[in-house]
Amino acid sequence: MTSSSSRHGTPCQLAVLLVVTLGSAVQLHATEIVLTKKLHHLRQQGSREWSSFPVEAEATSLEIGFSLPIKPVPSTLRLRQQDVKQPWQVLINGKMVGKLQQDENDMVRYLDVPANVLQQGDNQLTLKSDSERGPDDIRVGEIVLFDQARDQVLGQGEVTVRVVDAQAQPLPCRLTILDAKGALSAVGAQSTNTLAVRPGIVYTANGQARFSLPAGRYQVIAGRGFEWSVDSTMITINKGATHDVNLSIKREVPTQGLVSCDTHVHTFTYSRHGDATVEERMITTAGEGIELPIATDHNLHIDYRPVLKRMKLDKFFTPVIGNEVTTSVGHFNIFPVKAKAPLPDHRLTNWPDIITSIRQATGATAIILNHGRDLHSNVRPLGPANHITVTGQNLHGWGFGPNAMELINSGATQTDIMQLVHDWFGLLNRGYQVTPVGCSDSHDVGRHFIGQGRTYIRCPDHDPGNIPVAEAVGNFVAGRVIVSYGLLTTIQVNDRYSMGDLVPAGKPLEVKVSVLGPGWSQASVVELYANGKLLRSARIAEGKRAGTKWQGTWKLPPLNHDVHLVAVARGPGITSLHWPTAKAYQPTSPEWTASVFSCTGATWIDADGDGKPTSAHVYAESLVKQAAGDIPALLKLLASYDEAVAAQVASLLQTKTPGILLQPAFQKALAQAAATVQQGMQAYLLQWRASEQARSQR
Q1: Sign of the alpha-carbon dihedral angle for 592, 595, 600, 604
Q2: φ, ψ for residue 662 (rounded to 5)?
Q3: How far apart are CA 68 and CA 73, in angstroms?
Q4: 336 cis-preceded (ω within 30 degrees of 0)
Q5: Which of 308, 397, 578, 665 is 20–30 Å from 467 (CA)?
Q6: For residue 24, what pLDDT band results from cuts at 50, 70 and 90?
């Protein structure tokens, strides 16, 4: 082995090759040659992707020489892979036999090797990546070559699985199959009209599945998404044996009156990336317990209903036609859309025109800003070059046209799980009515699966095949929602008011918060925010129990002005491969902590008694007008308001008179102001400077 890789990804590193030469000792018997027993750490390019990997990789690619003592026959290559994000090719004697699965999860793959790829005598396995999409630290190894076809290797023992609910009724679900080392294990089965199959994952539309496995020890896990328990068993596969596995799962999270919705769903059939066909999407949707999926293939209006009815799965969910309007300045999910509605113009380059085109072409009620912190087409919509978070200010003067935004996209998570939450708080403080959204952005069967991120909408859900779509959409736009990513947080104010409601003025506030989840998801902290400021928090001692993990009431005195209340819960991420938490999609740091998360929609407190929610920005405008240019008087007026109002005042002053906040006279007056005023204005100044720097570097 040679290595000259460096921490900073020098050109020298990109040429590093890990060469392993094998002698006859690795030939176990006529049907099996072990090419390498260990997992090798490779890095495609650049510096370290994750701190969980060593600073130095073994190499950028892998070559293994091996000898084949017999005439080649159709064979199978077994390998184990971990943390694969970019495309990696697997070649034998220069001919590609497959690719690593672009999936960060730990899995075992079996690749067909045609006889004409091999040669008697010396052979060479090469594993490499030519991707230029950024660094990719991977582990790959435990590679074995079998002189049998793939179906034979995978077909050594047969398993029949049946999954029922508490009433002994079969139901759609997900099966996860792990080998003795805990990796997802490929199975001998293909997707059908009742199965969606990937390495270690089998979704079943009817609670039944039959597949084969190589001889060995396995764990079979059954689950049905966030609301359900899991059941599992260990089995030992012997050659020629058959096994019957019976598992039972039950509902652990009560969600009556809440519809589970995934607003961001794709298929390979129409979006042409990812791997889920439209038929597989029907099975996976039912298998994860999503009741209201929104079809959002790129710049298309797709109706799932004909396929759903043909597959006889229409009792499990109600599909809605939508569209991911994919532009050069942002992606926008829209719904509901009529099947034959004209397409919006995705070539437009500013938000006001895009929103106008969406509404005129489709009449869609809901318009969501997708993954606002992700970089697409060299644009990060809510990045500092375009947006100031603390005040919800668009720096192009576009305002904020969408009426919803993704806080959790489980297919494109953030390094800081609270970043988009703070972006949302800023928009609410600016005066925009914006619904928070959880979704999956799923293009896949197994990698980023449907329904991990989801939005619960207040709406009747007793008949999943006939959800009242108009009512659901209306409540979605009104903010009567809960964002869920492994937890479910509820809020009730004064025993009556909840997400999307306006609480009348004049009384002290009793805020009851509950945190729910299945037994396999853990909650550790719950928090209450007012206008984005943390007011209360509590540690959760019994966060591992199923159902209600925490419930408590916080009492608040009457408030000086209107605010929005939001409850947030978090906990450690899920490591179990039956529902694993994905790593950050476009990480801002090699350090990453997995989390589960939930937050409520906003509940507004009408402290001023005018019968409507008044934003921090509206208060700021009134105070600036009242002070009529007298800065000391303005700062004194601000003393009875919170940091959010102070930040909005700072934004108004800076917009009207650029540089005023940095003037010595202003800074001297600010130093004498109330602590909340200083904190709010300094928060704005800090982000304003970051935006100025970002814009100067474009």
Answers
A1: negative
A2: -95, -5
A3: 11
A4: yes
A5: 578
A6: very low
Distance CA 314, CA 306 (A): 9
Closest CA to 301 of 326, 321, 271: 321
**How many of the other CB atoms lie within 10 Å of CB of 285?**
30
Q: Which residues neighbour 397 within 8 Å (Cβ) at sequence distance 6 or greater?
A: none
Whether the CB-CB separation of 26 and 35 falls below 8 Å is answered with yes
In three-state secondary structure terms, 168 is coil
φ/ψ (deg, to 5) at 564: -105, 135
- pLDDT, mean of residues 362-384: 97
Q: Measure the CA–CA gap between 509 and 558, rounded to whole angstroms.
A: 7
Residue pair 570/524 in contact by the 8 Å Cβ criterion: yes
Q: What is the DSSP string of 209-259?
A: EEEEE-SEEEEEEEE-STTB--EEEEEEE-TT-EEEEEEE--B-S--TTEE
Q: What is the pLDDT of residue 17?
A: 61
**What integer pLDDT is reported at residue 280 of this predicted model?**
98
Q: The tokens of 191 are what?
A: 């997707």
Query: How many Å apart are CA 356 and CA 25, to the nearest integer?
Result: 70
213-217: long-range contacts, CB 8 A cutoff, minimum separation 24: 213/154, 213/156, 213/157, 213/159, 213/177, 213/185, 213/187, 213/188, 213/237, 214/153, 214/154, 214/156, 214/157, 214/185, 215/156, 215/157, 215/239, 216/179, 216/180, 217/179, 217/180
Bridge pairing between strands 258-265 and 292-295: parallel
pLDDT score, position 46 = 80
Nearest-10 Cα torsion for 596, 289, 323, 333: -30
* 154-183: average pLDDT: 97
First to last CA, the chain: 43
* Tens-place pLDDT, residues 477-525: 999 999 999 999 999 999 999 999 999 987 899 999 999 999 999 999 9
Token reading at 144:
């074995």
Range list of H helices, 311-454? 351-362, 419-430
Calculate the alpha carbon distances from 676 to 45, 79, 116, 645, 683 in Å: 46, 58, 74, 9, 11
Between β-strands 533-539 and 525-530, what pairing exists: parallel, antiparallel or unpaired?
antiparallel
- Output phi, psi for 207, to 5 deg: 80, 5
- 22 vs 15: CA distance, rounded Å: 22
Can you tell me the distance from the alpha carbon of 48 to that of 51, in angstroms, rounded to the nearest whole number?
Answer: 7
Tens of pLDDT, residues 207-228: 999 999 999 999 999 999 999 9
User: Quick one: pLDDT band at residue 2, thresholds 50, 70, 90?
Assistant: very low
For 232-263, write each residue's pLDDT tens digit. Answer: 999 999 999 999 999 999 999 999 999 999 99
**343 Cβ neighbours under 8 A, 6+ residues apart:** 299, 300, 301, 323, 361
pLDDT given for residue 16 in this prediction: 52
pLDDT of res. 7: 25
Mean pLDDT along residues 54-65? 95
Rounded Cα distance, 243 and 157, in Å = 8
Neighbours of 338 (CB within 10 A): 12
Residues comprising the chain, all counted:
698
What mean pLDDT is reported for the chain? 94
Identify the DSSP state of 349. -
The C-alpha torsion from 65 through 70 and 72 to 77, rounded to 10°, is -50
* Contact predicate 226/174, CB 8 Å: no
